[in-house]
Structure formats: structure tokens, C-alpha cells
């Protein structure tokens, strides 16, 4: 592409913002005895380096599972092992068994932050750049602007480089998967997505759309010919990649079961802490977590989740398209987030990634969603003392989106891809002409509420009887927003017909 | 609502502040000390106070500026205003100081806007990003040197350069009195700008005090306007009176001057001779032909020459040459070429200012950002003319990469680190000196050639 230097500048800006955020505090800094996610990652390096593979997921005198036991699939463990080898080379004290617990120093922080940056640079950022370059029917300038906005998304930067996690690895692999599958390199795409699942099991939120899209493609090619061949090849790739990743754990049945127990802790209850999903918000009015027995909670969340995502997935099988695939990723992940079991607030990133991918198609709604997603993690970010980076990155992201896409000019029904829906509704309600107006007002109300809540949380003290008041309010407001988005994205998917696609204006 | 107690309630744990704090330079302590001095002590003590080694050595307007800031500072952390709290650096102190720099940069942004208005948009590209105005505003607002010196290393250069750029813009807009006033004010904020005072002096004298030119461009002596000279002088005098007046009344002028121009450092009297003499010939020729652009080149030459030949010059002074040169770079291809060499080597020479490990990625990323953007955007702007660099210049600029790798990544692991720890600094200084001297020389030559061409054209 001709403007390669502008893309380089965009990547450099993304890297600079990331490193600047990483200079701030991390999760659990200076807070013994448990510390936080940063210590968890360091501990995993200690465990994977010093103990044999068979003991990684088991409770033992050397591996105390309640203290940050491994609860991600094997690929995370291998990644930690790799980092541990580098750490051993620089300073063995960082990963010494038992004695390195709670180790904190400037040099160690630098090392850990560098590992995140390298992983990001190798996996996530190239995927974003390639994705933007492969966008069709968009000018080069818009592609570069798109890349800038995606790379500036605050949620991922704050969690990975502030709180401390490696989401960019799993999200990067998932993005490579999306790229492969959208560009008809189905085998490579599936392989990449399998790697993503084997890095973090939460990527299963994206599994259904992948499955439905690929199945739909197989059906389209004809199940008696090429389609069947493709299906078999895909199945082989998936099985092979899983076997390869889990090889050390397939030797004994007990090993596999233990890993699965660690990955899917069904004993831990419907939700933990405060998260912006339905169950937590509902719990404010009716304490379902305490009232309902455990297995009922499981069944209830299972049913709700699958009922809410079924329409979109069925449509994707019947009419597989790249656009439908991306929107189904959004709605599926959002359904899981809102209704599933043991959801953490960071899981909103799994919804944010697909929303970033549709930024160029519905810039207004995507920007709105991405702002809400960052806001929903506010209690977590405040706990990690990341208020300043949050505010600055959010404002930078907002300004980038507004100037790149002129989002406030793209609020007509057609731009919001609600034209076919409005036409259908107008058959019964001729006066239904104010949809875009309503949406604009809702946006205004949402932003004002978010700003007010942020100010209140930062400046005021909660009343003594309700110490969690502000976190609960943040979660509740975010949940309402997310419900609205769930409905919106499902409308787009269900009303996206061939005639709708012809009417859509290409920006 | 009283903000103070609310901010106090948001109190961080003091232990891990040290873990997460980025390294800050001594300039933090310098400015904290000045806040303390101006807030706690009467004016008569300002230039005598010596509890800390960082005594007040800027002119009075800057002292008043710190005084005003200190009244805001007391809401952040009262303790920083105690003169005896040497090296006091709570997180709220740092927060306040960083915010004050960002806040004062508003003036810089305004000045950049005014400068961009003066640039003509003759070479209008189809897109916004190709317009000279846009490129200039990015080159100024995102100037790597200014970013790291002000916001990481910590100084208040942003708004000072804002004042300078504003005065240049006013001169471009033929509002000479305002330009002179702004420059006089600037001098009383930071006297380092004396380096470029000759350019201002001669330009104002030449273009403002002599109201008309002869057809061939040389001075029409009879058009000398006494009124204008006197009004200029009055402006400068009034500003100086406002600044130095209180200290004159207190009979403290010698003390103030000894702080501003410490003789053991020999700041002032050693550089005037080669600088002024070297430039005098160029000044008149340039100004007779080209006008405001000539003034800008003169200013840049002044700043560069003083950087090259001056006594006890700080490496940050290269910014004094880089920022005005940015205005020239979007006008002509030749100027763009000189600007790029000057700015790349000048910015690289600032690297030793940030030497801790967390800052290493930041300075490399920011430097790459600025360098890639400036080179590619100026190349695109002047793509129809001959290439900006010849092979020698390209080679030299590319050599900065291996140099950085050697100095920061390879050298610390060699055995020479203990015996000769100064080698990276030495290499950096020497390598950059070559580039800066080359840029200075090219600028000088181009100024002389242009004035000669101009003279023959007129004739």
C-alpha cells in the first residue's frame, strides 16, 4: 500500500501509548498476601519452570492451587515457561520456587511489561494491520484511520498494560482466525482460532460463530462434494491442534479431568465480584445467587445464553457471509457475557474485539459500545489506580474516532444499518420515523451518565451502609447499555437481507 | 466545594509509589524549590535564598510565574512549598507539576495556530495531511525534543517557545510592536533567548524603523523614523522596568545579574564576539531582500551559532534552533533538507537526557515517530523537486540507528563499561556535532547564495 509510512506512524503511536500506560501501577501492586494478576503471571512462570508438567495443574506442597493456581489452558502454561527461561537468564530470583512469592522490583516490572509488549507486537498488532489493509471498498486513508482507532482502544491497553494480562495473545490469535476464515483460508483460520481457545478458554465465546460460519460454508459448497471434504479437513485440523497442545495431559484420564476442572470451575457460582451482566444486576433486586440451588443456576444460565444467541447462529449457517460472521461474533460474545456462568468483567474484551472489526461499518454505534465497555471496567481500573491513564486513553480514542469517521454525521437510519428494520416496523406503525433521533438521545444520556458516575466514584465516598454502591451502579448502567446493544446487533443480523445490502451506502 | 480535602481522600499508598514512579530529573526539584522560595519568602529574599543548591537563576517574570503557580500548588500539597523540604517529591507534587506544564502548553498551541496562519497554502495537496499547514502543526506540536524535555525531563519550555513563535508570527503579520513586546516579555522570562536578540534587533531596526526601501532593496537612510525607534525602545524599557523595577528599588540588581549570568560559567561575554561578527555580514544582505523569511533564517542561524560557539551551552538549547527552522521547512525544499538533518541529529543528541530503562522504549518510539513522520511528509510535500538528501546525508542519518544500538544495547555488556564509561556520551556528542555543524554550514551558505541571487534579480 502506498501510505506505508503512515501505517508505521500509526503502529508507533499505538506502541507509545501502550508503553506509557505500562509505566503505571499494576494489579495487586504492594498488596500482600495475595497481590493480583501480575503476581499470578509471575507465579505461573515459577511453577512451570520448576515443576514437571504432570504437577502443573495439581495441588501439592510445591504447588498450592488456592494461591493463583493455573486456570488457563496449556498454551498459557507454555508461554509462561518460555518467559521463565528468559527470566532465569536475567535474574533467577524472580522465579525461584517458594522464595520468589510476592517478588516486586522495578527491573522485574520492566521485564514483565516487556513480555506483554513483545507478545502484542508479534501477534495482535500485525493481525490488526493486516485486517485493516484487507478491508474492502475503503480508501487507504480510512484504512489507516481504522487501524489507529483499533490500536487505541482503551480497554485492551488498560487491561494488558495496566492491570496486567496477556489478552492480546488470545485476541490476536482469534483475529488471525477471523482473517483466515474471511479470506477463504479456512484451514489456517481454524488453526489460529484453535490456538486462541487453547490459550484462554474464554475464547469459546467466539467458538459458535466460527463453527456456524464454517458449517454454513460447507453446506454451501454441497455436503456431497467439496463441502464434505472441507468439513473433514477442518475437523482434522481442530483435533490435531488440540491433541498437540494437550499432549502432555492426554497421557492419563485424571490429568485431563483435572485440567478441565481448573478451566471450568462450576463450583464457583453464578458470578463473582461485580460484573456488568444480567445475573449480577438482577441480584441487586432478588438474591438469586443465594436463593436458587447450584444446578438450577447452571441450567438457567445455559438456557438463557443459548436462547439469546440461537437466531443469529442459525441465520449464519443458512446464509454464511463475512459481514454476518463478524456481527454474529459480536452478538454471540455479548450473549455469553450477559447470561453465562462465572463471567469476569474483563471478558467484555471478547465482545470489544469483534466490535472493533465492524468499526468501519457502523462507526457511531461501535464507538459508543467501546466507550461503554471501557467504562464497565471502571471499578477494576480504579482498584489498580489507573484512573489517569483510563481518562487520557479514553479521550484520545474518542477524539481519534470522531475525527477519523465523523461519527456524529453517521446517525441516519441507513448509516446505522437499521433501514430494513424501520421499513418493516413502519408497515404496522407508520409513524415510526424517529428511530435515529431516539438513538442519538440515548447516546447522550448514556455518555452523561457515564461521566457523572465516574466523577462520583472518584470524588465522593459511598454511604456506610452501601459500600459497593458505586461499583454496583456502574455495573447496572453498563448492563442496561449492553442489553440495548444486544438487541441492536441482533436486529442488524436478522434484518440484513440481500435487498438491504444493495441499499447500503459504501463510505 | 473545597477540592483540597477530596483530593486528600484519594490518597495513594506511599510504599509502592517508588515502585511505580518514573524517574524524574533534578529539574523537578529545581522548580519545586522555586515554588517554595516565591511562595514562602518576601521578594527581597528571592534572589538571596540559597538553602538549596538550585538557586533562582531566571529573570523576575519567571519568578512571578512560579509565585502564581504556587498559589495553585497549595491545594495539591502544602508540603512542597516549604523551603527546607529539599528533594520533596510526593506523588501529588509530581502530578501538579506535570499538569502545570500541560496547562501552560495551551499558549504553545495557540502560538502554533497563529504561525500556521502565516504559512501560505500555495502547494495545496488534495488531502488535509498533505497541506503545509497541517505538516507544520504536527512538526511543532509533536516535536520530539520539546516533548521529552518538557514532559519527561521536566521544564517549562512549551509556553516560552509559544511566546517566541507568537512574536515571530506577529512579525510575519507586520504587527511589529506586538512582536517586539512579546519578545521583550520572553527575555524577562528566560534570558537564554538573548542568543537570538541580535536577529530581532537588526530586523526591527531594518524593516520597522526604516519605513521604505530604495528600488534595489538597500536602505533608504532618509526614511529613518525616530518615532518608531523611540516607541520600540519605550516598549522594551517598560517591560524591563516592570520586571527589574522592584529589584532596582531594593538595590538588588547586581545580585540578580550575578544569578542570571554567573561569571564562573561565563555564559554571556564569551560568545558574543564570534556570533555577532560572523553574522553581521549575512544579516544586512538577507534582510534587504527577503523580509520576514530572511528574519527567520537569521534567527535560526543566531541560535545555531550560539549553540555551536557558545560557552556552557546546554544540549536542550538546540530546540531554540529547531523550532523556528520548522517554520522554514514547509516553505522550500532546500530548507526542508537542512531542517531534517538538524532536527534528526539534534533530537538524537537529547537521548542522554533520558537514561533509565523504562524511558528507553519511549524515547526510541517517540524519536522514530517524529523522524519517520517528518521525513516522509516533507518528502511527499516536495516530491516534485529533486530528492531531499544525497547519498552521503542518507548514510549519515541511517548511521544513527547502529550508533544507538551500540551505545545502549551492546556497550553496557562489554568490558569497556567499567574502564571507559564515557564512551557512549562521547560518541553521541561527536556524531551529532558533525551533523549539526553540517546543517549550520549549509544554512549559512544557502543564506549567502540566496541574498546574492536576490540582489542580482533586483538589478
From TrEMBL, chain A:
Entry keyword annotation includes Transmembrane: yes
TM spans (from-to): 110-132, 144-161, 173-197, 227-249, 298-318, 348-371, 386-408, 429-457, 469-495
Enzyme nomenclature, EC number: 2.4.1.-
Cellular localisation: Endoplasmic reticulum membrane
GO MF assignments: dolichyl pyrophosphate Man9GlcNAc2 alpha-1,3-glucosyltransferase activity
Keywords of this entry: Endoplasmic reticulum, Glycosyltransferase, Membrane, Signal, Transferase, Transmembrane, Transmembrane helix
InterPro entries: Glyco_trans_ALG6/ALG8
Record pathway: Protein modification; protein glycosylation
Pfam family, one: Alg6_Alg8
A GO cellular component entry from the record: endoplasmic reticulum membrane
Signal sequence extent: 1-22
Major localization class: endoplasmic reticulum
Topology in membrane: Multi-pass membrane protein
Catalytic activity field: an alpha-D-Man-(1->2)-alpha-D-Man-(1->2)-alpha-D-Man-(1->3)-[alpha-D-Man-(1->2)-alpha-D-Man-(1->3)-[alpha-D-Man-(1->2)-alpha-D-Man-(1->6)]-alpha-D-Man-(1->6)]-beta-D-Man-(1->4)-beta-D-GlcNAc-(1->4)-alpha-D-GlcNAc-diphospho-di-trans,poly-cis-dolichol + a di-trans,poly-cis-dolichyl beta-D-glucosyl phosphate = an alpha-D-Glc-(1->3)-alpha-D-Man-(1->2)-alpha-D-Man-(1->2)-alpha-D-Man-(1->3)-[alpha-D-Man-(1->2)-alpha-D-Man-(1->3)-[alpha-D-Man-(1->2)-alpha-D-Man-(1->6)]-alpha-D-Man-(1->6)]-beta-D-Man-(1->4)-beta-D-GlcNAc-(1->4)-alpha-D-GlcNAc-diphospho-di-trans,poly-cis-dolichol + a di-trans,poly-cis-dolichyl phosphate + H(+)
Summary of the function given for this chain in its UniProt record: Dolichyl pyrophosphate Man9GlcNAc2 alpha-1,3-glucosyltransferase that operates in the biosynthetic pathway of dolichol-linked oligosaccharides, the glycan precursors employed in protein asparagine (N)-glycosylation. The assembly of dolichol-linked oligosaccharides begins on the cytosolic side of the endoplasmic reticulum membrane and finishes in its lumen. The sequential addition of sugars to dolichol pyrophosphate produces dolichol-linked oligosaccharides containing fourteen sugars, including two GlcNAcs, nine mannoses and three glucoses.
PANTHER family tied to this protein: DOLICHYL GLYCOSYLTRANSFERASE (PTHR12413), DOLICHYL PYROPHOSPHATE MAN9GLCNAC2 ALPHA-1,3-GLUCOSYLTRANSFERASE (PTHR12413:SF1)
Similarity remark: Belongs to the ALG6/ALG8 glucosyltransferase family.
Name of the protein: Alpha-1,3-glucosyltransferase
Native organism: Pan paniscus (Pygmy chimpanzee)
Protein's gene: ALG6
Amino acid at each position: 500500500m502506498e501510505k506505508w509510512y503512515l501505517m508505521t506512524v500509526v503502529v508507533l503511536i499505538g506502541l507509545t501509548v501502550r508503553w506509557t500506560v505500562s509505566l503505571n501501577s499494576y494489579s495487586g501492586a504492594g498488596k500482600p498476601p495475595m497481590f493480583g494478576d501480575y503476581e499470578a503471571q509471575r507465579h505461573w512462570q515459577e511453577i512451570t519452570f520448576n515443576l514437571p508438567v504432570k504437577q502443573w495443574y495439581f495441588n501439592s506442597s510445591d504447588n498450592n492451587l488456592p494461591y493463583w493456581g493455573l486456570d488457563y489452558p496449556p498454551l498459557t502454561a507454555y508461554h509462561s515457561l518460555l518467559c521463565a527461561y528468559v527470566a532465569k537468564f536475567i535474574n533467577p530470583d524472580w522465579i525461584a520456587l517458594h522464595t520468589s512469592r510476592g517478588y516486586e522490583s522495578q527491573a522485574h516490572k520492566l521485564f514483565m511489561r516487556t513480555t506483554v509488549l513483545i507478545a502484542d507486537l508479534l501477534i495482535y498488532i500485525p493481525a490488526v494491520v493486516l485486517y485493516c489493509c484487507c478491508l474492502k471498498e475503503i480508501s487507504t486513508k480510512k484504512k489507516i484511520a481504522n487501524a489507529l482507532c483499533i490500536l487505541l482502544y482503551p480497554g485492551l491497553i488498560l487491561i494488558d498494560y495496566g492491570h496486567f494480562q496477556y489478552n492480546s495473545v488470545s485476541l490476536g490469535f482469534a483475529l488471525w482466525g477471523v482473517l483466515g476464515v474471511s479470506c477463504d483460508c479456512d484451514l489456517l483460520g481454524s488453526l489460529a482460532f484453535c490456538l486462541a481457545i487453547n490459550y484462554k478458554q474464554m475464547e469459546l465465546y467466539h467458538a459458535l460463530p466460527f463453527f456456524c460460519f464454517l458449517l454454513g460454508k460447507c453446506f454451501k459448497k454441497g455436503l456431497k462434494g467439496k463441502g464434505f471434504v472441507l468439513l473433514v479437513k477442518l475437523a482434522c485440523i481442530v483435533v490435531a491442534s488440540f491433541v498437540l497442545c494437550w499432549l502432555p495431559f492426554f497421557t492419563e484420564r485424571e490429568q485431563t479431568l483435572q485440567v478441565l476442572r481448573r478451566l471450568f470451575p462450576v463450583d464457583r457460582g453464578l458470578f463473582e465480584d461485580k460484573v456488568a451482566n444480567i445475573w449480577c444486576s438482577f441480584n441487586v433486586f432478588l438474591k438469586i445467587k443465594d436463593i436458587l440451588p447450584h444446578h438450577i443456576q447452571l441450567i438457567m444460565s445455559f438456557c438463557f445464553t443459548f436462547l439469546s444467541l440461537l437466531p443469529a447462529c442459525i441465520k449464519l449457517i443458512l446464509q454464511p457471509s463475512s459481514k454476518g460472521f463478524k456481527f454474529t461474533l459480536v452478538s454471540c460474545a455479548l450473549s455469553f457475557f450477559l447470561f453465562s456462568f462465572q463471567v469476569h468483567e474483563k471478558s467484555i474484551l471478547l465482545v470489544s474485539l469483534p466490535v472493533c472489526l465492524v468499526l468501519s461499518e457502523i462507526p457511531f454505534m461501535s464507538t459508543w459500545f467501546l466507550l461503554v465497555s471501557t467504562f464497565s471496567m471502571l471499578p477494576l481500573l480504579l482498584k489498580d489506580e489507573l484512573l489517569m491513564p483510563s481518562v487520557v486513553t479514553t479521550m484520545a480514542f474518542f477524539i481519534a474516532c470522531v475525527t477519523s469517521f465523523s461519527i456524529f454525521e453517521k446517525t441516519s437510519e441507513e448509516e446505522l444499518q437499521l433501514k430494513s428494520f424501520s421499513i418493516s416496523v413502519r408497515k404496522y406503525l407508520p409513524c415510526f420515523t424517529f428511530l435515529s433521533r431516539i438513538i442519538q438521545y440515548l447516546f447522550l444520556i448514556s455518555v452523561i451518565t457515564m461521566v457523572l458516575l465516574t466523577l462520583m466514584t472518584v470524588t465522593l465516598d459511598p454511604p456506610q451502609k452501601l459500600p459497593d454502591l458505586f461499583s454496583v451502579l456502574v455495573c447496572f448502567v453498563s448492563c442496561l447499555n449492553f442489553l440495548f446493544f444486544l438487541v441492536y446487533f441482533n436486529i442488524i443480523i436478522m434484518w440484513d437481507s440481500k435487498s438491504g445490502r444493495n441499499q447500503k451506502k459504501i463510505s | 466545594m473545597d477540592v483540597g480535602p477530596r483530593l486528600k481522600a484519594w490518597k495513594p499508598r506511599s510504599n509502592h509509589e517508588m515502585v511505580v514512579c518514573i524517574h524524574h530529573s533534578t529539574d523537578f526539584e529545581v522548580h519545586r524549590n522555586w515554588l517554595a522560595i516565591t511562595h514562602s519568602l518576601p521578594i527581597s529574599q528571592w534572589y538571596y535564598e540559597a538553602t538549596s543548591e538550585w538557586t533562582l537563576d531566571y529573570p523576575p517574570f519567571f519568578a512571578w510565574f512560579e509565585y502564581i503557580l504556587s498559589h495553585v500548588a497549595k491545594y495539591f500539597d502544602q508540603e512542597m512549598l516549604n523551603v527546607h523540604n529539599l528533594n520533596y517529591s510526593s506523588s501529588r507534587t509530581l502530578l501538579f507539576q506535570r499538569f502545570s506544564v500541560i496547562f501552560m502548553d495551551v499558549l504553545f498551541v495557540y502560538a502554533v495556530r497563529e504561525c500556521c496562519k502565516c504559512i501560505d497554502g500555495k502547494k495545496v495537496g488534495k488531502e488535509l495531511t498533505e497541506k503545509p499547514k497541517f505538516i507544520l502543526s504536527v512538526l511543532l506540536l509533536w516535536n520530539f525534543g520539546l516533548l521529552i524535555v518538557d514532559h519527561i525531563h521536566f521544564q517549562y519550555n512549551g509556553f516560552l517557545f509559544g511566546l517566541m513563535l507568537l512574536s515571530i508570527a506577529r512579525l510575519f503579520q507586520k504587527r511589529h510592536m506586538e512582536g517586539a513586546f512579546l519578545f521583550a516579555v520572553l527575555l524577562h522570562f528566560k534570558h537564554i533567548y538573548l542568543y537570538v536578540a541580535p536577529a530581532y534587533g537588526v530586523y526591527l531596526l531594518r524593516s520597522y524603523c526604516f519605513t521604505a526601501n530604495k528600488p534595489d532593496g538597500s536602505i533608504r537612510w532618509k526614511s529613518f523614523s525616530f518615532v518608531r525607534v523611540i516607541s520600540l525602545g519605550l516598549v522594551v524599557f517598560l517591560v524591563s522596568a516592570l520586571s527589574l523595577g522592584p529589584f532596582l528599588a531594593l538595590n538588588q540588581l547586581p545580585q540578580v545579574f550575578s544569578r542570571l549570568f554567573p561569571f564562573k560559567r561565563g555564559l554571556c561575554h564569551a560568545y558574543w564576539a564570534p556570533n555577532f561578527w560572523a553574522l553581521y555580514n549575512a544579516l544586512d544582505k538577507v534582510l534587504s531582500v527577503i523580509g520576514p523569511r530572511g528574519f527567520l533564517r537569521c534567527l535560526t542561524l543566531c541560535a545555531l551559532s550560539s549553540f555551536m560557539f557558545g560557552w556552557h551551552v546546554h544540549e536542550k538549547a538546540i530546540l531554540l534552533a529547531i523550532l523556528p527552522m520548522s517554520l522554514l521547512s514547509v516553505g522550500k525544499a532546500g530548507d526542508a533538507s537542512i531542517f531534517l538533518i538538524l532536527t534528526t541529529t539534534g533530537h538524537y543528541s537529547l537521548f542522554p537526557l533520558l537514561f533509565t530503562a523504562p524511558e528507553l522504549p519511549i524515547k526510541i518510539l517517540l524519536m522514530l515517530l517524529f523522524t519517520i513522520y517528518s521525513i516522509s511528509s516533507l518528502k511527499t510535500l516536495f516530491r516534485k523537486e529533486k530528492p531531499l538528501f544525497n547519498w552521503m546525508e542518507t548514510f549519515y542519518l541511517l548511521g544513527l540507528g547502529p550508533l544507538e544500538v551500540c551505545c545502549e544495547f551492546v556497550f553496557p555488556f562489554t568490558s569497556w563499561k567499567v574502564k571507559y564509561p564515557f564512551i557512549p556520551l562521547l560518541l553521541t556528542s561527536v556524531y551529532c556535532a558533525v551533523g549539526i555543524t553540517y546543517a549550520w554550514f549549509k544554512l549559512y551558505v544557502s543564506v549567502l547564495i540566496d541574498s546574492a541571487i536576490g540582489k542580482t534579480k533586483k538589478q
